[in-house]
Amino acid sequence: MKVRGIEMKSIYKYLIINLCEKKVRSFLILLSIGVSAALLFATMGMSNTCKQMYVDQIVKWSGTSDITIEVNKQQGSDTFIKNTDISLDEEKYEYNVGIIKSEGLYNPNVENMQYLDIVGTTLEELALYNNYLLEEGDIEDFSGNKIMISSTFAEKAGLSIGDEIPIKFSQDTITFTVKGIAKQKGLFINESTSVVAVVPRDALEALYGSEGISNQFYLKLKDNSNMDTDITSLKESLTNCTVSRSVNPSDLSQAVNTVVMPFRISSLSVVFMSIYIVYTSFHLMVLERMSAIGTFRSIGLTKKKLKRIFVLESFLWGVVGGILGCLLGYIALNTVIIKYVEKLSEGTLLTVAIQPIQIVISMALAIILTMLSALPPMFKALKKSTKNIILNISEEKVKKRKLQSVVLLIMVLFFIACVVIPHTMGASLACMIITIVCMTIILILMIAIIPYGIQFIAACIMKFGRSDKVLWIAARNISTNKNMKNIIRLLAISASSILIITNISNAISNTIANVYDTYHLYDISMSYRTADESFEEQLGNVEGVESYVSDYEIDSVKLEDQNYYLNTLYGIKDETFFDFMGAEQTDESQNAIEELNTGRNIVITNLLASKLGLSVGDEVKLTIDDSTFDYTITGMLESSFKLGNIGFVSGDYLQKDINLSYYTTTYIKTNSDVDTVKNNIKAEFLEDILFIQTLDELVAINQDLIVSIFRIINAYAMLAVIIGIIGIANNILACYIERRRELAMYRSIGMSKKRMKNLFISEAILCGTLGILVAFIGTTGILNITPFMLSYIFGNVAMEYNVILYAGFAIAGIFIMCLLTILPIAKADKLSIIESIKYE
Prior knowledge:
Layout: E1 2-3, E2 6-7, H1 8-21, H2 23-58, E3 67-71, E4 81-82, E5 93-106, E6 114-121, H3 123-129, E7 134-137, E8 146-150, H4 151-157, E9 164-169, E10 172-182, E11 195-200, H5 201-208, E12 213-214, E13 216-221, H6 227-237, E14 241-245, H7 249-298, H8 303-345, H9 356-381, H10 386-391, H11 401-420, H12 429-464, H13 469-480, H14 482-518, E15 524-528, H15 533-540, E16 545-559, E17 564-572, H16 587-594, E18 601-605, H17 606-612, E19 619-624, E20 627-637, E21 646-650, H18 651-657, E22 665-670, H19 674-684, E23 689-694, H20 695-738, H21 740-748, H22 753-794, H23 803-820, H24 822-829, H25 833-837
Parallel strand pairs: 6-11, 8-10, 17-21, 18-20
Antiparallel strand pairs: 1-2, 3-13, 3-14, 4-12, 5-6, 5-13, 7-10, 8-11, 9-10, 15-22, 15-23, 16-17, 16-19, 16-22, 18-21, 19-20
Helix pairs in contact: 2-7, 2-8, 2-9, 2-20, 7-9, 7-14, 7-20, 8-9, 8-20, 11-12, 11-22, 12-13, 12-14, 12-22, 13-22, 14-20, 14-22, 22-23, 22-24
Protein name: ABC transporter permease
Domain MacB-like periplasmic core: 26-229, 498-682
Keywords: Cell membrane, Membrane, Transmembrane, Transmembrane helix
C-alpha cells in the first residue's frame, strides 16, 4: 500500500524501530497500562473469591439448598417435628433433607472443654445436600455410636481414628468412636466459634426417644423462580418454624463490599497515576516523532491517515498492556488472597477462579485507558502545520497574565468548594459519592494549578534572586519547560497518593483498634443456655466476678420501610448496660435510655439516623422472625460500633415480642486475672455454657486481620510511588534529551561542568519543593473531607494529620529528585557540544 509514493510498511517499520530504541519509555507505558488493568483484574477477582468464601461460610449448614426451615425453640430446650410435616408439593423440590441438630459437651478437663454442634443424619442425606470429604478413616457402616469430626478439632483435641470421645447431652453421656476425620469443607468449613461433629441419625433418635423427627430441614427447588411464593406457603403451614432463603443476596453483597471497598478506593490513586504517566509518555513519544511526522506529511501522508495509524497504535498498546495486566493481576490476586483474604477465611478453602468477564473487562479498561490517554497528545500534534513541524516552530499561545489570574482564582474557589460541600452533609450514600467526586476534582486541580504556581514562584526568584545566576536560570527553565512541569506533577501525585492512602489506612486502623477501648468495656463475654435472674445471682458468687450485665441480642434485624438491616438489636434492662458497652451520650439520649421501658421505644445511633434520614419521633418497623413490630425513635447516641448499624430497645418489650425466655449474652467485669476468672466460670457452669470469650482473645483474633488489611493497602500506595518514581526518571531523562542543544549552548559560552551539575541540582530542588508543596495542599484538602466518605462504610473515623509523616515525605521527595539528577549529570559529562548544537 502506498500513500503518494511512500509505502505504509515504511511507516510501520519506523514506528517499530522507534519503540525498540526507546525501551525504557516503552516499558514504562506497558507497565502503567498493565498495572491499571492488573488492579481491576485483582479487585474483581478478590470480589469473586470473597463472594465464594462468604457463600461457603453462609451455606455451612444449608449446603446446596434453596430454603432452610428451622423449628423455633426456647433457649434451653429442643423441639422437633415429624419429617412428614413438610407440606410443600414433592414435585417442586429435588430433595428435602431433615437433620437433628443438638448441642453436646466434650469435657476432658475444665481448660480444654469444648461445646459441639452435633448433627444427626445419614451419610447419604449429608452427601445429598452438603457434601463432605474425608481426610482420614473409611466410614462404610455409619450407624450406632460413631462420630465424624473435623481435622481441626482432631488436631486440637489430640484425637485419632478409633479413639473414643464421651459427649454429654443434658443429663446423658454417650461415648462415640471416631470413625472419620473430615477436611474443612461443608459443615466443617469454619470452626472459629463452634465445632461441628456428625453422628448417625439413629443415635440421636434413640437419645430423644422418637424416630423420623428433625428440627432443621433443607429444601432444593427444581425451579427457584417462585421461591418467595414457596416460602410464604411453608410459613403458613409451619407456624412454629422459621422459613427463609438459605442465602440472602443482600447480606452477601454487604459482606463482600465491606471487604473489597478499601482496595477499590486505594486502587483509584494508582489508576489515576497510571493514566497520567501514559499520557505524559505518549506526549514525549510524539515530541520525539515530530520531525518524522513532518517528513511523512511533507511527502503526502494525510492527517486522516495519521489519525488511523495513531488509533491503531494506541489500540495495540492497550491490547498488549491488557494482556500484561491480566498476568500481573493474577499474581497480585494470589498475593492479596494469601496475605489478606486468608485471614478472613477462618479455614474456608479459598479458590482463585478466573472468569471470562474478568479478563474482558480488564482488557477493555486497558484499551480505553490507553486510547483516552494516548490519542489527545497524538491528535494535538497534527494541528501543527507541516512547515512549523519541520522548522520546529512552537504555536503555543502564551496566556495573558490577567487571564491566568482569573483561571487561578476560579481553581482556588473550586478547591474551597470541594472542601466545604461535604461538611454540609450528613453520613449517607449520597455524601460518600459527592465526597469521592470532590476528592477527584481536588486531584485534578492539583495538576491544573501547578503551571500557575510555577510561574508565580519562578517570577519571584527571577526578580529577587538575580545574584545567583544558576538559581535564576533554573527558575526560568522550570517555568518554560513542559517536561519539568510534568515532573512536578508526577511528584505531587506520587507524594499525595502515598500520603492520602497512608493517612487513611492509619485512621481506619486506629478507629478499628480503638473500638476495643471505646466500646468493649468488659473483660469476658459469654452465652449461657438458661441465663435468667437465678443464673446472674449464681454468677455474682463466682470468685473474681466484680459485676455483670445481661441482655437480649438479635442479629440482622430488618428495618422494613428503609429496606435496611441492623447488625444487632440490643434489648437492655437499663442504662447500666453502657458501663459494659460504651457509647457517647448526651442528656437527651440518657433520658431516652432511661425511658426505654415506658413503651416500644428505640434509641439508634446518629450515624444510622444520618444514613437513613431518620429523626426523633419517627416510627420504624422492626422485622424479627417474620414478625413486624412498630417502634418509636426516642433518642440518638454517638457510636460507630458495628458501623453504627445498631439499636437499643427495652429488654422487657423485646422479650415479650419474640417470646424469649433467657438472656442471649452476658458481659462481665473482673477484679482478678481474667483467664483465671474465665476458668472459674467454666467450672461453675460446666454443662450449659454455649460460648465464653475474654476481650483479649477477641482482640487477638482480629489483630492479624487488621494488620493484613492495611499491609496490602499500603502496598497499593507503594506501587503508586514506584510507578511515579519511574515516570519522573523517564521525564528527567527525556527532558535532558530535549534540552541537549540548550545545554550545549550554555557550555559553549563558558558554563563549567560543575556549574552544570549545580544547575541540575537547583532545578531538582525547585521541582521537589514545588511538587511537595502542591501535594501537601491537595492532600490536606482531601484528608479534610475523607471522613465523610469513610463514615458511610466504617462509621465515625477521626482523621489525624501526622506532621512527622509530612516532614518525612518532604525530605524524601526532594532527596529523590536530587538523586534522580544523577541521570542527566551522567549524560552531561559525556556531552559533545558540536553534536548537541546540531541536535534536531
